[in-house]
Specification:
Blueprint: H1 2-21, H2 26-42, E1 72-75, E2 80-84, E3 89-98, H3 99-102, H4 126-129, E4 135-138, H5 149-154, E5 161-164, H6 166-169, H7 172-187, E6 189-197, E7 205-206, E8 211-212, E9 216-225, E10 228-237, E11 249-250, H8 252-259, H9 269-277, H10 299-311, H11 313-335
Length: about 350
């Protein structure tokens, strides 16, 4: 029976081929197939999930804090967190951010919020936030991981979320996140630790899992690069804010007293004492980040980008063409079931 079916299929295929060959489109079809074959064989695959420089094992992860909390430490590709089952969110989320990463935005925000199966006690769920009146606020912001699709994707785990007032999340908190990127760009490399602060008991909670609503949020930033050694903390109430970012700045020592977290404990003792005791607000940027590789709305940045593009337009066009060809190749691989 199978032989008969195979024989009939071959017969029909030959008949269809003869029919196509007689049409005026046959030369075009042949040319397309030849081009497709060339693309498939010659164009290299774009490397997937390239390991960023800051994940080099030789780097000391100063961003990882030390706590006495009951927490589960979980590592994803680009960030680490200490999950607190009681509050159903992290006590802290830590990662590094480099200038190189900010110059290679290869992926766009997709927004696939979902549970984190890495949490042994189960993370918060989408239902917890639904109709709660609070935003699913990123602690490690998605925009800091545009350099890698997997890193960006993992930033949408609900283990990286905390209930934030909408005007806060989309206002002063977003401004601070952008300023963090500006500081990473200006200082080449930045260690970032961020998380919630609870000052009142009992907690206000949302959802069946009783996700606790923080009273405030913190960020701890460290630059430790050669002679450029400095740190600063920020504490922002979970409410609409209209003050300048610098008004929320505190020393790391003050932040440690408030959170009971030991930040940057792996530093040299002398450096730790000096850096954490005080800070110079004027040595930090509070402006929004504008990538020099992407056209921005600000006039100055737009001009700078235009000039850069005019001197290297050939390179940009070549990269765009290669990306398109890789896309075609990927499609062909899918069609041929060769992935």
């Amino acid at each position: 029976m199978n032989k008969k079916i195979k024989k009939e299929a071959n017969k029909q295929a030959k008949k269809a081929y003869r029919k196509i060959r007689k049409t005026k489109y046959f030369p075009i079809i042949v040319a397309v197939l030849v081009l497709a074959f060339i693309i498939y064989v010659i164009i290299p695959e774009k490397p997937k999930n390239k390991t960023p420089k800051f994940q080099d094992e030789s780097i000391i992860h100063y961003e990882i804090p030390k706590t006495d909390f009951d927490e589960e430490v979980i590592s994803h590709k680009a960030y680490t967190l200490g999950y607190n089952e009681e509050t159903e969110q992290p006590n802290w989320v830590a990662y590094t951010l480099s200038k190189d990463n900010l110059l290679t935005p290869v992926t766009e925000r997709e927004g696939d919020f979902r549970e984190d199966d890495s949490v042994s006690t189960k993370s918060a769920t989408l239902k917890d936030y639904r109709s709660s009146g609070y935003d699913r606020g990123h602690l490690a912001p998605a925009a800091d991981f545009k350099w890698d699709k997997e890193a960006m994707d993992e930033s949408f785990y609900l283990s990286n979320m905390s209930p934030q007032v909408g005007d806060f999340n989309r206002g002063v908190w977003a401004d601070l996140e952008s300023a963090v990127r500006s500081n990473a760009y200006e200082n080449e490399f930045l260690y970032v630790t961020t998380g919630p602060i609870f000052t009142k008991r009992p907690y206000t909670t949302i959802g069946t899992n009783k996700v606790a609503v923080p009273d405030a949020y913190y960020k701890a930033l460290l630059v430790y690069n050669g002679n450029n050694k400095k740190a600063i903390g920020f504490v922002l109430p979970n409410e609409k804010g209209d003050k300048p970012l610098v008004s929320y700045a505190v020393s790391i020592d003050e932040l440690e007293d408030l959170t009971d977290i030991d930040f940057f404990y792996q530093l040299d003792d002398d450096d730790e004492d000096r850096i954490e005791k005080s800070f110079n607000p004027k040595s930090w940027s509070y402006s929004k980040f504008h990538s020099p590789t992407v056209q921005e709305s600000a006039d100055g940045d737009y001009e700078r980008v235009t000039k850069a593009n005019s001197s290297s337009s050939g390179s940009f066009k070549f990269k765009a063409t290669m990306a398109t060809l890789r896309g075609i190749k990927h499609t062909l691989r899918s069609i041929l079931h060769l992935n």
